[in-house]
Amino acid sequence: MTLPGAGHGCPALTARGAAGTSAALLWAAWESGSRCPAGCGPAAAAEVESRGGRGGKRGDPREAWARGWCCVGYPLPARAGAARPRGAPVSGGYLRAGEMAGASGPGDPLALEEPPLPRPSQPESRLGYQDRLAQIHLTILRGHCDTVSSCHFCFEDTKILSCSYDRTMKLWDVEKGVPVQVFEEEHTAPISECSLTPDNKRVITSSYDKTVKAWDMETGKMLWTVDQEGLVTSCNISCDGKYVVSGLDMENAICVTDAVNATTVAYVQDHHRSTITRCCFDPDNERVSSVSSDKTIKLWDIIAQSTTITIDEAHTNVISDCCFTTDGHYLCTASWDKTLKIWDIKTGEFRYQGPIWLNRGHEGSVSSCVFSKDASLVVSGAYDKTIALWDAGAGYKKLALKGHGDWVMDVAISNNKKWILSSSKDATLRLWNIEKADHVPAAIESRNIRGSKIVKCEECEKPFSLLQCDDSEAVTKCVFCRLASPSRNILPLPPIVAPDL
Question: What's this model's pTM, rounded to 2 decimal places?
Fold first, then answer.
């Protein structure tokens, strides 16, 4: 078998078969260790540092890598990808061969030739059916020229906000399917996430260029920027618009920033044992939830300035995303172990009951998750290129949406539960009309297989799916009301909870 580096001249690459990764991650690896990310070793790294590599600026090997040359002047091999999946940890020192596979993008240091300037395709809207059984109408939004890393509904579901590895953020008109505002020319590396204030006036972005930036939605102008020591993997603004939390690759830290004057409110070093993949405020603006590639969930109290809840080994693989219900009662987590879990955070009853499991919905690592406004639905996206729509009350998958050509990076659901939005490594967004999802053949078939029916909860009066089983006790409440009831059966304490005082 021919190694990825074979035939391209570089002896180190030929020997190691290095596949490399994106420019931002290579540069981070260079700055955090002594070994050349291409694998040529410290001696070659010292050499390029003295002469700048082939075509590089003296003293800066990154210029050489960006032009497609390794440390000692050999051309680097082309490869299949550079996108970093949500939750992918960054190795210290150098990146192992094949560690970050994905699609090659602008500025890929392992390209054979200097890439041309990115030219985004024209925005395109298309209506069609995604699946014979699903029969879900969809609209494809084209305009980004690289992985679309984050997406949101805003302005009462009339607009869509997206950000991308192409270093831009776009505001889209839902009805027309075209961008109406473009935020660009500020970030110098892929944008990892964007977060909007509830009043839609400001938006926060985080990037692998080690910055967090605030923007004015109306003018498109940048309001402030905060420089960090390492890659910024995630960002979120509190519901009252006062604080911004960001997850940092350096020191596995979270940083809380004043959203108005951009001053640091708190910096929690070594908050996790490995890369923080996602962090977000609860709806009460009191706690920050964070998840990590160390498989741990943590809740950090802003007032107490300490971690109040730690759930170790919450999943069996990297935890890639987390989100709260609008009342802050439940936290949903998504993982590379192909499952999602719903945790009763408000009362802490997960210590005795354990979480609600959502499994058998994806064949690949789950990248993202979001609750509907009324918490009756959960939407998840995965690296198997699919989106799953879950009944949160009954804990089963109602529908699978297929159509993306690559990893699904993020998902969102409209307030009225009529639309699902997904963003992908295939550089597109897709808008799915799920208004009649309960009545399409795939959803009916899914209910029939599980033997469930739709009933109304006697307590909250919301509809939920009820499995038709042989239990003598009739179930009249949805799972959320049953969890809140003091009369439920108590299960043994799971060995996963360890409070961090």
Answer: 0.69
